[in-house]
Amino acid sequence: MKKIISQLAPYIKKFKKHVFLNVFFNLLYALFSALAFISLMPMLNVLFDKTSVVTEAPIWSGISGIKTYGEQLLNYRVSSYLVEGNAQMALFIVISLVISTFLLKNLFGYLSMQHMMYLKNGVLNNLRKDMYNKIIELPLSFYSKRQKGDVMARILGDISEMQNSFFIVLELVVREPATIIFSLIFMFAFSWKLTLFVLLFIPIAGLLISRLGKSLKSNSLKAQQESGKLISIVEETLTGLKIVKSYNAEPIFRNIFVKSSDEILRLSNKIGLKNNLAGPVSEVLGITTIAVLLWYGGQLVLVDKVIEGTDFLVFMGLSYAILTPAKAISKASYKVKNGMAAADRVFEILHEDDNLADIPNATILNGFNNELAVNNISFKYDNELVLKNFSIKVPKGKTIALVGQSGSGKSTIANLVTRFYDINAGSITVDGNDIKNVTKKSLRGLMGLVTQDSILFNDTIKNNILIGKPNATDEEVMDALKIANAWEFVKDLPKGIETNVGDAGNNFSGGQKQRLSIARAVLKNPPIMILDEATSALDTESERLVQIALENMMKNRTSIVIAHRLSTIQNADEIIVMLKGEIVEQGAHQELLDKNGMYKKLVDMQSFE
């Protein structure tokens, strides 16, 4: 608990004005909560004819005597009306006092809640934004071993759970304890014996409730983890719906979903059973306390006659004022377990180390002048090396192609050059600058990436292309579409570049999506272009159109082409043939054909897998 509060402290400090005002109004609320019951005493005295008769107006003797002055002034006003036989006016005064006290209590309660709302919503908004920033900053390697649904559950579900559960503590931390303290002060003023009687039962209640809540946090954590798994199942099902349907695999995925959903149900019921115990347990303890208090207090009033009946009724009201916040605290202690589990999961992401963070004073690359060099690098994703002692040089303005069978390490080169992953040995340099020593932003600013999967976002064609250059004009967007051979179909759309591409671009064919991806890279106009099997998923006609687009884009540009088909790479300045992470052949197209080696076999198969 202390750890989570300390982690939240920097967020709370930004709203310290609301913290101060919340505490201030909560203290006033607590004071008037106790005074609300004290204000009943003059009314009860009038009703039961117990009002002390004061015939002379009291004299102000300073702040130290304010309590006595207030009581005497009220009794003086009330008793003067009673002496005159005007009981209605006396009753009106004491009832007005009660109403005023309750009105002030609720006004301060409202103001405290307003400032708590600004604090809570502001903190959670900043948490959500920081978490999203962290999610997009973390390297790809972080997500290779995690379910996307789990990450989504943390930024959506867990932060909401913190709002619903954990922040209840902030709401109660001042108000309820202060209400108890003010009530106890007044209770001791009436009868220290009765007050000790009440206090005897509060630790017992706390002990019972703490025992009931011990396992709640672990169950909450399991439920939140399972919720993340459930979101992943839904996300994967929707992404692969064609496969699910074509293989008649609905029962398989349905069973996976039902199993996860049933587990959430089991855990939720387990948590709910314990949550639901908080109310009845505190209720039973409360009524037990009241019953014992009535018995013992009745003795003091009726038998021992050491306390007035009206005083005892007010004391009972103050006892209720203690039991209500005590009950709220006991219920909150259950809910806070859920919030703590959620907070742990949120801060786990926020504190995740970025192992690809820029070094201090990293170099900013302002352009590309000479060459990109991969120098004797080795790399592994897990245990087995994917690249071994691999070296290539890509001079400015040249096109280098990488070919080879699946698993030979071609796409890994694209991941390493763009620094999505860090190499294990060797170096990658741009104009002699090791990319580990330059800012990722300036490095990636020099590069355009077109992948096999045409990644488009559920937005307009224009906004998808503007990702490459946010301040571009409509004319520049259309020029990029023309170079990418995409304007031919975009111009015929009813809304043109304002047409929505749909979820993952599914309003268009594979070839059209790929040409839109190429237009995005064209608009960015980077000096280095990386094509990662950009035509491998296309039919022959689409490939022809995309190939023309690629050739238009690659003119006078430095390019690394990871190839699947012969048409993509035969005009490359140099072709690198890879096998199991190593270079087995390299040279121009005809030169490699003449060698009659592995490249010749791949060409004969017409497939670079």
UniProtKB/TrEMBL annotation:
<dbReference type="GO" id="GO:0005886">
    <property type="term" value="C:plasma membrane"/>
</dbReference>
<feature type="transmembrane region" description="Helical">
    <location>
        <begin position="89"/>
        <end position="111"/>
    </location>
</feature>
<feature type="domain" description="ABC transmembrane type-1">
    <location>
        <begin position="20"/>
        <end position="338"/>
    </location>
</feature>
<dbReference type="InterPro" id="IPR039421">
    <property type="entry name" value="Type_1_exporter"/>
</dbReference>
<dbReference type="GO" id="GO:0005524">
    <property type="term" value="F:ATP binding"/>
</dbReference>
<dbReference type="Pfam" id="PF00664">
    <property type="entry name" value="ABC_membrane"/>
</dbReference>
<feature type="transmembrane region" description="Helical">
    <location>
        <begin position="20"/>
        <end position="41"/>
    </location>
</feature>
<feature type="domain" description="ABC transporter">
    <location>
        <begin position="372"/>
        <end position="605"/>
    </location>
</feature>
<keyword id="KW-0472">Membrane</keyword>
<keyword id="KW-0813">Transport</keyword>
<keyword id="KW-0067">ATP-binding</keyword>
<dbReference type="InterPro" id="IPR017871">
    <property type="entry name" value="ABC_transporter-like_CS"/>
</dbReference>
<protein>
    <submittedName>
        <fullName>Antibiotic ABC transporter ATP-binding protein</fullName>
    </submittedName>
</protein>
<keyword id="KW-1133">Transmembrane helix</keyword>
<dbReference type="InterPro" id="IPR003593">
    <property type="entry name" value="AAA+_ATPase"/>
</dbReference>
<dbReference type="InterPro" id="IPR003439">
    <property type="entry name" value="ABC_transporter-like_ATP-bd"/>
</dbReference>
<keyword id="KW-0547">Nucleotide-binding</keyword>
<dbReference type="GO" id="GO:0015421">
    <property type="term" value="F:ABC-type oligopeptide transporter activity"/>
</dbReference>
<dbReference type="GO" id="GO:0016887">
    <property type="term" value="F:ATP hydrolysis activity"/>
</dbReference>
<dbReference type="InterPro" id="IPR036640">
    <property type="entry name" value="ABC1_TM_sf"/>
</dbReference>
<dbReference type="InterPro" id="IPR011527">
    <property type="entry name" value="ABC1_TM_dom"/>
</dbReference>
<dbReference type="InterPro" id="IPR027417">
    <property type="entry name" value="P-loop_NTPase"/>
</dbReference>
<dbReference type="Pfam" id="PF00005">
    <property type="entry name" value="ABC_tran"/>
</dbReference>
<keyword id="KW-0812">Transmembrane</keyword>
